[in-house]
Protein backbone atom coordinates (compact mmCIF):
# COMPACT_ATOMS: atom_id res chain seq x y z
CA UNK A 1 0.00 0.00 0.00
CA UNK A 2 1.12 3.55 -0.59
CA UNK A 3 2.32 5.47 2.45
CA UNK A 4 1.39 8.84 0.97
CA UNK A 5 -1.67 10.78 2.05
CA UNK A 6 -3.37 10.35 -1.32
CA UNK A 7 -4.76 6.86 -1.98
CA UNK A 8 -3.08 5.04 -4.84
CA UNK A 9 -5.66 3.93 -7.41
CA UNK A 10 -4.84 1.67 -10.33
CA UNK A 11 -7.32 2.29 -13.12
CA UNK A 12 -7.36 -0.70 -15.44
CA UNK A 13 -8.98 0.02 -18.79
CA UNK A 14 -10.40 -2.79 -20.91
CA UNK A 15 -10.93 -2.84 -24.67
CA UNK A 16 -14.55 -1.69 -24.90
CA UNK A 17 -16.26 1.23 -26.56
CA UNK A 18 -17.21 2.49 -23.09
CA UNK A 19 -13.53 3.35 -22.48
CA UNK A 20 -14.34 6.95 -23.39
CA UNK A 21 -16.53 7.18 -20.26
CA UNK A 22 -13.58 6.11 -18.11
CA UNK A 23 -11.82 9.39 -18.96
CA UNK A 24 -14.43 11.13 -16.80
CA UNK A 25 -13.97 8.54 -14.01
CA UNK A 26 -10.23 9.24 -14.10
CA UNK A 27 -10.88 12.97 -13.81
CA UNK A 28 -13.15 12.45 -10.80
CA UNK A 29 -10.49 10.39 -9.03
CA UNK A 30 -7.65 12.83 -9.70
CA UNK A 31 -9.65 15.97 -8.88
CA UNK A 32 -10.64 14.48 -5.52
CA UNK A 33 -6.99 13.99 -4.55
CA UNK A 34 -6.36 10.39 -5.57
CA UNK A 35 -3.11 9.39 -7.24
CA UNK A 36 -4.06 7.33 -10.30
CA UNK A 37 -1.94 4.96 -12.36
CA UNK A 38 -3.70 4.09 -15.62
CA UNK A 39 -3.03 0.57 -16.93
CA UNK A 40 -4.84 0.04 -20.26
CA UNK A 41 -4.76 -3.14 -22.28
CA UNK A 42 -3.14 -2.91 -25.69
CA UNK A 43 -6.51 -3.02 -27.44
CA UNK A 44 -7.99 -0.43 -25.06
CA UNK A 45 -5.57 2.07 -26.64
CA UNK A 46 -7.46 1.61 -29.92
CA UNK A 47 -10.43 3.35 -28.24
CA UNK A 48 -8.63 6.03 -26.17
CA UNK A 49 -4.98 6.82 -26.84
CA UNK A 50 -2.08 6.93 -24.40
CA UNK A 51 -1.68 10.75 -24.52
CA UNK A 52 -5.24 11.21 -23.22
CA UNK A 53 -4.67 8.95 -20.22
CA UNK A 54 -1.32 10.59 -19.45
CA UNK A 55 -2.75 14.11 -19.66
CA UNK A 56 -5.72 13.33 -17.43
CA UNK A 57 -3.74 11.38 -14.81
CA UNK A 58 -0.62 13.57 -14.82
CA UNK A 59 1.49 10.40 -14.91
CA UNK A 60 3.05 8.20 -17.59
CA UNK A 61 0.75 5.41 -18.70
CA UNK A 62 1.83 1.86 -17.82
CA UNK A 63 1.26 -0.24 -20.92
CA UNK A 64 3.58 -3.26 -20.95
CA UNK A 65 5.51 -5.67 -18.77
CA UNK A 66 8.68 -4.81 -20.73
CA UNK A 67 8.56 -1.08 -19.98
CA UNK A 68 10.94 0.06 -17.19
CA UNK A 69 11.74 -3.59 -16.46
CA UNK A 70 14.16 -2.64 -13.67
CA UNK A 71 11.16 -1.40 -11.65
CA UNK A 72 9.37 -4.76 -12.08
CA UNK A 73 6.06 -3.06 -13.00
CA UNK A 74 4.06 -6.30 -13.27
CA UNK A 75 4.57 -6.74 -9.50
CA UNK A 76 5.10 -3.25 -8.08
CA UNK A 77 1.97 -1.61 -9.49
CA UNK A 78 -0.35 -4.07 -7.77
CA UNK A 79 1.66 -4.08 -4.55
CA UNK A 80 1.44 -0.30 -4.17
CA UNK A 81 -2.27 0.00 -4.89
CA UNK A 82 -4.97 0.88 -2.37
CA UNK A 83 -7.64 0.11 -4.98
CA UNK A 84 -7.69 -1.50 -8.41
CA UNK A 85 -10.67 -0.38 -10.46
CA UNK A 86 -11.21 -2.05 -13.84
CA UNK A 87 -13.54 -0.28 -16.29
CA UNK A 88 -14.80 -1.27 -18.70
CA UNK A 89 -14.31 -4.88 -17.64
CA UNK A 90 -14.91 -6.85 -20.82
CA UNK A 91 -16.02 -10.49 -20.94
CA UNK A 92 -12.44 -11.37 -21.92
CA UNK A 93 -10.95 -9.53 -18.94
CA UNK A 94 -13.41 -11.14 -16.50
CA UNK A 95 -12.55 -14.57 -17.89
CA UNK A 96 -8.80 -13.99 -17.58
CA UNK A 97 -9.16 -12.65 -14.03
CA UNK A 98 -11.37 -15.56 -12.95
CA UNK A 99 -8.89 -18.12 -14.31
CA UNK A 100 -5.71 -16.37 -13.15
CA UNK A 101 -4.33 -15.73 -16.61
CA UNK A 102 -1.62 -13.07 -16.83
CA UNK A 103 -0.66 -12.27 -20.41
CA UNK A 104 -0.32 -8.49 -20.08
CA UNK A 105 0.43 -5.81 -17.49
CA UNK A 106 -3.15 -5.40 -16.29
CA UNK A 107 -3.80 -9.10 -15.67
CA UNK A 108 -0.41 -9.38 -13.92
CA UNK A 109 -1.43 -6.44 -11.73
CA UNK A 110 -4.68 -8.19 -10.80
CA UNK A 111 -2.72 -11.20 -9.56
CA UNK A 112 -0.31 -9.16 -7.44
CA UNK A 113 -2.81 -6.73 -5.90
CA UNK A 114 -3.69 -7.36 -2.26
CA UNK A 115 -6.09 -4.43 -2.04
CA UNK A 116 -9.80 -4.29 -2.95
CA UNK A 117 -10.47 -4.93 -6.64
CA UNK A 118 -13.58 -3.57 -8.38
CA UNK A 119 -14.73 -4.67 -11.82
CA UNK A 120 -17.24 -2.54 -13.75
CA UNK A 121 -18.39 -4.80 -16.61
CA UNK A 122 -19.61 -3.43 -19.93
CA UNK A 123 -20.58 -5.59 -22.88
CA UNK A 124 -23.58 -6.62 -24.97
CA UNK A 125 -26.47 -8.20 -23.08
CA UNK A 126 -25.95 -11.62 -24.63
CA UNK A 127 -22.32 -11.66 -23.52
CA UNK A 128 -23.20 -10.57 -19.96
CA UNK A 129 -25.95 -13.19 -19.66
CA UNK A 130 -23.87 -16.04 -21.12
CA UNK A 131 -23.35 -18.84 -18.56
CA UNK A 132 -19.57 -18.59 -18.94
CA UNK A 133 -19.56 -14.89 -18.02
CA UNK A 134 -21.95 -15.46 -15.12
CA UNK A 135 -19.77 -18.30 -13.81
CA UNK A 136 -16.68 -16.07 -14.02
CA UNK A 137 -18.50 -13.29 -12.14
CA UNK A 138 -19.59 -15.75 -9.44
CA UNK A 139 -16.00 -17.00 -9.09
CA UNK A 140 -14.58 -13.49 -8.75
CA UNK A 141 -17.23 -12.48 -6.20
CA UNK A 142 -16.62 -15.62 -4.16
CA UNK A 143 -12.92 -14.71 -3.99
CA UNK A 144 -13.74 -11.26 -2.61
CA UNK A 145 -13.64 -9.14 -5.75
CA UNK A 146 -16.41 -6.59 -6.21
CA UNK A 147 -18.14 -7.04 -9.55
CA UNK A 148 -20.70 -4.33 -10.22
CA UNK A 149 -23.79 -5.22 -12.20
CA UNK A 150 -23.88 -3.28 -15.49
CA UNK A 151 -26.64 -0.77 -16.11
CA UNK A 152 -29.56 -1.10 -18.50
CA UNK A 153 -29.62 1.25 -21.48
CA UNK A 154 -28.36 2.00 -24.96
CA UNK A 155 -25.47 -0.20 -26.06
CA UNK A 156 -23.35 -0.14 -29.21
CA UNK A 157 -25.38 0.63 -32.32
CA UNK A 158 -29.14 0.42 -31.91
CA UNK A 159 -29.12 -2.29 -29.25
CA UNK A 160 -30.56 -1.70 -25.77
CA UNK A 161 -30.36 -3.88 -22.68
CA UNK A 162 -28.27 -4.76 -19.64
CA UNK A 163 -24.57 -4.33 -20.28
CA UNK A 164 -24.10 -0.57 -20.28
CA UNK A 165 -21.27 0.87 -18.19
CA UNK A 166 -22.80 2.86 -15.29
CA UNK A 167 -22.30 6.61 -15.30
CA UNK A 168 -18.80 7.73 -14.21
CA UNK A 169 -20.16 9.62 -11.19
CA UNK A 170 -21.85 6.45 -9.94
CA UNK A 171 -18.69 4.42 -10.52
CA UNK A 172 -16.68 7.02 -8.62
CA UNK A 173 -19.14 6.87 -5.71
CA UNK A 174 -18.76 3.08 -5.62
CA UNK A 175 -14.97 3.37 -5.65
CA UNK A 176 -14.99 5.89 -2.81
CA UNK A 177 -17.24 3.62 -0.74
CA UNK A 178 -14.74 0.79 -1.17
CA UNK A 179 -11.80 3.04 -0.26
CA UNK A 180 -13.69 4.34 2.78
CA UNK A 181 -13.61 0.82 4.21
CA UNK A 182 -9.85 1.15 4.43
CA UNK A 183 -9.01 -2.15 2.79
CA UNK A 184 -11.29 -4.20 5.03
CA UNK A 185 -12.34 -7.58 3.71
CA UNK A 186 -15.33 -7.65 1.37
CA UNK A 187 -17.29 -9.59 3.98
CA UNK A 188 -20.43 -9.89 1.83
CA UNK A 189 -18.54 -11.31 -1.16
CA UNK A 190 -20.51 -14.07 -2.85
CA UNK A 191 -23.69 -13.19 -0.94
CA UNK A 192 -26.96 -12.39 -2.65
CA UNK A 193 -28.80 -9.52 -1.03
CA UNK A 194 -32.36 -8.32 -1.67
CA UNK A 195 -33.23 -4.80 -0.49
CA UNK A 196 -36.48 -2.85 -0.69
CA UNK A 197 -36.49 0.95 -0.62
CA UNK A 198 -38.82 3.90 -0.93
CA UNK A 199 -42.54 4.10 -0.22
CA UNK A 200 -45.42 2.28 -1.89
CA UNK A 201 -48.29 4.19 -3.50
CA UNK A 202 -51.85 2.92 -3.51
CA UNK A 203 -53.90 4.41 -6.33
CA UNK A 204 -57.27 5.99 -5.55
CA UNK A 205 -57.87 7.07 -9.14
CA UNK A 206 -55.57 7.90 -12.09
CA UNK A 207 -54.55 11.15 -10.34
CA UNK A 208 -54.46 10.50 -6.59
CA UNK A 209 -52.86 7.90 -4.36
CA UNK A 210 -52.26 7.01 -0.71
CA UNK A 211 -48.57 7.21 0.10
CA UNK A 212 -45.94 8.17 2.64
CA UNK A 213 -42.92 10.45 3.02
CA UNK A 214 -40.16 7.88 2.46
CA UNK A 215 -37.50 9.11 0.02
CA UNK A 216 -35.69 5.76 -0.26
CA UNK A 217 -32.36 7.27 0.80
CA UNK A 218 -31.74 4.76 3.59
CA UNK A 219 -32.53 1.79 1.36
CA UNK A 220 -30.28 3.16 -1.37
CA UNK A 221 -27.49 3.68 1.18
CA UNK A 222 -27.91 0.05 2.23
CA UNK A 223 -27.61 -1.00 -1.41
CA UNK A 224 -24.52 1.12 -2.10
CA UNK A 225 -22.70 -0.07 1.02
CA UNK A 226 -23.59 -3.71 0.33
CA UNK A 227 -22.11 -3.39 -3.17
CA UNK A 228 -18.94 -1.91 -1.65
CA UNK A 229 -18.71 -4.95 0.64
CA UNK A 230 -18.93 -7.36 -2.30
CA UNK A 231 -22.58 -8.37 -2.30
CA UNK A 232 -24.65 -9.22 -5.36
CA UNK A 233 -27.45 -6.70 -4.79
CA UNK A 234 -31.01 -6.62 -6.12
CA UNK A 235 -32.83 -3.41 -5.17
CA UNK A 236 -36.62 -3.18 -5.37
CA UNK A 237 -37.30 0.53 -5.66
CA UNK A 238 -40.75 1.89 -4.81
CA UNK A 239 -41.28 5.38 -6.26
CA UNK A 240 -37.76 6.68 -5.66
CA UNK A 241 -36.21 9.51 -7.70
CA UNK A 242 -32.58 8.97 -6.61
CA UNK A 243 -29.85 7.85 -9.05
CA UNK A 244 -29.44 4.08 -9.13
CA UNK A 245 -26.54 2.83 -6.97
CA UNK A 246 -23.80 1.63 -9.31
CA UNK A 247 -23.55 -2.14 -9.31
CA UNK A 248 -27.05 -2.87 -8.02
CA UNK A 249 -29.74 -4.55 -10.12
CA UNK A 250 -32.62 -2.10 -9.68
CA UNK A 251 -36.25 -3.14 -10.29
CA UNK A 252 -39.17 -0.67 -10.12
CA UNK A 253 -42.42 -1.28 -8.24
CA UNK A 254 -45.30 0.98 -7.28
CA UNK A 255 -47.80 -0.59 -4.88
CA UNK A 256 -47.58 -2.93 -1.90
CA UNK A 257 -49.01 -5.81 -3.94
CA UNK A 258 -46.42 -5.23 -6.70
CA UNK A 259 -43.68 -5.13 -4.07
CA UNK A 260 -44.91 -8.37 -2.51
CA UNK A 261 -44.88 -10.09 -5.91
CA UNK A 262 -41.34 -8.87 -6.63
CA UNK A 263 -40.08 -9.87 -3.17
CA UNK A 264 -41.53 -13.37 -3.47
CA UNK A 265 -39.99 -13.75 -6.94
CA UNK A 266 -36.51 -12.77 -5.73
CA UNK A 267 -36.27 -13.80 -2.07
CA UNK A 268 -35.64 -17.50 -2.69
CA UNK A 269 -32.22 -16.60 -4.17
CA UNK A 270 -31.23 -14.20 -1.37
CA UNK A 271 -28.95 -14.88 1.58
CA UNK A 272 -30.22 -11.64 3.16
CA UNK A 273 -33.47 -9.74 2.71
CA UNK A 274 -33.64 -6.16 4.00
CA UNK A 275 -37.13 -4.66 4.04
CA UNK A 276 -36.29 -0.94 4.24
CA UNK A 277 -39.26 0.22 2.14
CA UNK A 278 -42.17 1.97 3.84
CA UNK A 279 -45.11 -0.23 2.85
CA UNK A 280 -48.62 1.20 3.05
CA UNK A 281 -50.78 -0.69 5.54
CA UNK A 282 -53.99 -0.12 3.54
CA UNK A 283 -55.12 0.41 -0.05
CA UNK A 284 -58.45 1.47 -1.59
CA UNK A 285 -60.78 -1.48 -2.12
CA UNK A 286 -61.41 -0.22 -5.65
CA UNK A 287 -59.49 2.11 -7.95
CA UNK A 288 -61.76 4.62 -9.67
CA UNK A 289 -61.36 4.38 -13.47
CA UNK A 290 -61.50 8.17 -13.86
CA UNK A 291 -60.64 11.18 -11.72
CA UNK A 292 -63.05 11.49 -8.81
CA UNK A 293 -64.89 14.78 -9.20
CA UNK A 294 -65.82 17.14 -6.41
CA UNK A 295 -69.57 17.50 -6.12
CA UNK A 296 -70.68 21.03 -5.18
CA UNK A 297 -72.56 21.14 -1.91
CA UNK A 298 -71.72 17.60 -0.83
CA UNK A 299 -68.81 16.17 1.07
CA UNK A 300 -66.38 13.65 -0.35
CA UNK A 301 -67.59 10.11 -0.81
CA UNK A 302 -65.98 7.72 1.67
CA UNK A 303 -63.13 5.57 0.38
CA UNK A 304 -63.27 1.97 1.53
CA UNK A 305 -59.85 0.63 2.52
CA UNK A 306 -58.60 -2.93 2.70
CA UNK A 307 -55.50 -4.23 4.41
CA UNK A 308 -52.33 -4.75 2.39
CA UNK A 309 -50.34 -7.99 2.72
CA UNK A 310 -47.78 -8.11 5.54
CA UNK A 311 -44.73 -8.81 3.39
CA UNK A 312 -42.20 -8.95 6.24
CA UNK A 313 -44.24 -11.34 8.39
CA UNK A 314 -44.84 -13.56 5.37
CA UNK A 315 -41.11 -13.74 4.63
CA UNK A 316 -40.22 -14.78 8.15
CA UNK A 317 -43.06 -17.29 8.33
CA UNK A 318 -42.06 -19.00 5.08
CA UNK A 319 -38.29 -18.56 4.86
CA UNK A 320 -36.91 -19.48 1.47
CA UNK A 321 -34.08 -21.58 2.91
CA UNK A 322 -32.31 -22.29 6.22
CA UNK A 323 -29.86 -19.61 7.27
CA UNK A 324 -31.57 -16.81 5.37
CA UNK A 325 -31.36 -13.56 7.37
CA UNK A 326 -34.27 -11.14 7.33
CA UNK A 327 -33.97 -7.51 8.43
CA UNK A 328 -36.99 -5.29 9.00
CA UNK A 329 -37.41 -1.56 9.56
CA UNK A 330 -39.77 0.19 11.98
CA UNK A 331 -40.47 3.91 11.70
CA UNK A 332 -42.08 5.15 14.91
CA UNK A 333 -43.17 8.57 16.15
CA UNK A 334 -43.45 7.83 19.90
CA UNK A 335 -42.56 5.13 22.46
CA UNK A 336 -40.07 4.05 19.87
CA UNK A 337 -38.37 1.12 21.62
CA UNK A 338 -41.59 -0.20 23.13
CA UNK A 339 -43.32 -0.27 19.76
CA UNK A 340 -40.16 -1.61 18.12
CA UNK A 341 -39.93 -4.60 20.47
CA UNK A 342 -43.60 -5.36 19.91
CA UNK A 343 -43.09 -5.26 16.15
CA UNK A 344 -40.03 -7.52 16.36
CA UNK A 345 -42.10 -10.11 18.23
CA UNK A 346 -44.94 -9.87 15.70
CA UNK A 347 -42.80 -9.97 12.56
CA UNK A 348 -40.31 -12.64 13.60
CA UNK A 349 -37.34 -11.13 11.74
CA UNK A 350 -33.73 -11.56 12.81
CA UNK A 351 -32.98 -7.84 13.11
CA UNK A 352 -35.29 -4.84 13.31
CA UNK A 353 -33.93 -1.35 12.66
CA UNK A 354 -36.04 1.03 14.75
CA UNK A 355 -35.87 4.77 14.14
CA UNK A 356 -37.92 7.78 15.10
CA UNK A 357 -39.56 9.74 12.30
CA UNK A 358 -41.46 13.00 12.05
CA UNK A 359 -40.44 16.52 12.91
CA UNK A 360 -37.74 16.54 10.25
CA UNK A 361 -36.21 13.23 11.36
CA UNK A 362 -35.24 10.39 8.99
CA UNK A 363 -37.64 10.94 6.06
CA UNK A 364 -35.93 12.79 3.21
CA UNK A 365 -32.80 13.64 5.21
CA UNK A 366 -29.18 12.65 4.59
CA UNK A 367 -28.72 11.42 8.15
CA UNK A 368 -30.39 9.04 10.56
CA UNK A 369 -30.04 7.29 13.89
CA UNK A 370 -31.52 4.03 15.09
CA UNK A 371 -31.53 1.15 17.52
CA UNK A 372 -31.16 -2.31 15.99
CA UNK A 373 -33.07 -4.93 17.95
CA UNK A 374 -32.09 -8.57 17.52
CA UNK A 375 -34.19 -11.71 17.88
CA UNK A 376 -31.46 -12.85 20.29
CA UNK A 377 -32.38 -10.02 22.70
CA UNK A 378 -29.58 -7.67 21.63
CA UNK A 379 -30.01 -3.92 21.20
CA UNK A 380 -27.39 -1.94 19.26
CA UNK A 381 -27.55 1.85 19.25
CA UNK A 382 -26.39 3.58 16.07
CA UNK A 383 -25.71 7.26 16.76
CA UNK A 384 -26.83 10.15 14.60
CA UNK A 385 -24.82 10.33 11.39
CA UNK A 386 -24.92 9.82 7.61
CA UNK A 387 -27.28 7.16 6.36
CA UNK A 388 -24.30 5.38 4.78
CA UNK A 389 -22.73 5.02 8.25
CA UNK A 390 -25.95 3.54 9.62
CA UNK A 391 -26.10 1.18 6.65
CA UNK A 392 -22.55 -0.02 7.23
CA UNK A 393 -23.32 -0.71 10.89
CA UNK A 394 -26.39 -2.73 9.91
CA UNK A 395 -24.25 -4.78 7.52
CA UNK A 396 -21.73 -5.34 10.35
CA UNK A 397 -24.52 -6.91 12.40
CA UNK A 398 -25.72 -8.95 9.42
CA UNK A 399 -22.22 -10.21 8.57
CA UNK A 400 -21.71 -11.38 12.17
CA UNK A 401 -24.86 -13.52 11.89
CA UNK A 402 -24.41 -15.05 8.45
CA UNK A 403 -23.81 -18.78 8.33
CA UNK A 404 -20.38 -19.48 6.81
CA UNK A 405 -20.54 -20.83 3.29
CA UNK A 406 -19.24 -24.34 2.62
CA UNK A 407 -15.84 -24.24 0.94
CA UNK A 408 -16.22 -24.00 -2.83
CA UNK A 409 -19.83 -22.77 -2.73
CA UNK A 410 -19.79 -19.80 -5.12
CA UNK A 411 -23.45 -19.46 -5.96
CA UNK A 412 -26.80 -20.72 -4.81
Automatic annotation (TrEMBL):
Please name the GO terms of the biological process aspect recorded for this protein, alphabetically: coenzyme A biosynthetic process; pantothenate catabolic process
Keywords carried by this UniProt record: Decarboxylase, Flavoprotein, FMN, Ligase, Lyase, Magnesium, Metal-binding, Multifunctional enzyme
Give the pathway listed in the UniProt entry for this protein: Cofactor biosynthesis; coenzyme A biosynthesis; CoA from (R)-pantothenate: step 2/5; Cofactor biosynthesis; coenzyme A biosynthesis; CoA from (R)-pantothenate: step 3/5
Span of domain Flavoprotein:
8-153
Q: What is this protein called?
A: Coenzyme A biosynthesis bifunctional protein CoaBC
Q: How is the cofactor bound?
A: Binds 1 FMN per subunit.
HAMAP family reported in the protein's UniProt record: CoaBC
> What family is reported?
In the C-terminal section; belongs to the PPC synthetase family.
Describe the function of this protein. Catalyzes two steps in the biosynthesis of coenzyme A. In the first step cysteine is conjugated to 4'-phosphopantothenate to form 4-phosphopantothenoylcysteine, in the latter compound is decarboxylated to form 4'-phosphopantotheine. Catalyzes two sequential steps in the biosynthesis of coenzyme A. In the first step cysteine is conjugated to 4'-phosphopantothenate to form 4-phosphopantothenoylcysteine. In the second step the latter compound is decarboxylated to form 4'-phosphopantotheine.
According to the record, the residues making up region (Phosphopantothenate--cysteine ligase) are 193-412
Catalyses which reaction(s): (R)-4'-phosphopantothenate + L-cysteine + CTP = N-[(R)-4-phosphopantothenoyl]-L-cysteine + CMP + diphosphate + H(+); N-[(R)-4-phosphopantothenoyl]-L-cysteine + H(+) = (R)-4'-phosphopantetheine + CO2
Q: Which organism is it from?
A: Nocardiopsis gilva YIM 90087
> PANTHER family of this UniProt entry?
HOMO-OLIGOMERIC FLAVIN CONTAINING CYS DECARBOXYLASE FAMILY, PHOSPHOPANTOTHENOYLCYSTEINE DECARBOXYLASE
Q: Which cofactors is this protein said to need?
A: Mg(2+); FMN
User: Which SUPFAM superfamilies does the record associate with it?
Assistant: CoaB-like, Homo-oligomeric flavin-containing Cys decarboxylases, HFCD
Ranges for region Phosphopantothenoylcysteine decarboxylase: 1-192
EC numbers for this chain: 4.1.1.36, 6.3.2.5
Q: Tell me the residue numbers annotated for binding CTP.
A: 281, 291, 309-312, 329, 343, 347
Instruction: Extract the GO molecular function terms from the UniProt entry.
Output: FMN binding; metal ion binding; phosphopantothenate--cysteine ligase activity; phosphopantothenoylcysteine decarboxylase activity
Describe the location of the DNA/pantothenate metabolism flavoprotein C-terminal domain by residue ranges.
Answer: 188-400
A cellular component term, taken from the record's GO annotations? phosphopantothenoylcysteine decarboxylase complex
